[in-house]
Amino acid sequence: MVEVDFDLCESNGVCVGVAPDVFDLNERDELVVSDSAAELPENKDAIDEAIAGCPRAAIRWRT
Ligand code: SF4
């Protein structure tokens, strides 16, 4: 499960560029996370990259 701290997220879309199947921005420029896509093993590497690349360190795996 992937967790985003929306108090930190500034909706800059970096994670959307890295893992577009998991992260998206809605019409109000708010970040949306697809929990079902986040569960797929093929998206794990992209999520790891998004976690590493988030300039606000707002994304983490929830264990
Ligand atoms: S990269 Fe981080 S700050 Fe940017 S939209 Fe994604 S979670 Fe938010």
From TrEMBL:
Organism lineage string: Bacteria, Bacillati, Actinomycetota, Actinomycetes, Mycobacteriales
Alphabetical list of Pfam families matching this protein: Fer4_13 (PF13370)
Keyword Iron part of the UniProt annotation: yes
Designated name of the protein: Ferredoxin
Domain of life according to the entry: Bacteria
Function: Ferredoxins are iron-sulfur proteins that transfer electrons in a wide variety of metabolic reactions.
Provenance organism: Rhodococcus sovatensis
Cofactor(s) the record lists: [3Fe-4S] cluster
InterPro entries, sorted: 3Fe4S_ferredoxin, Fe-S_cluster_ET
Keyword annotations from UniProtKB, A to Z: 3Fe-4S, Electron transport, Iron, Iron-sulfur, Metal-binding, Transport
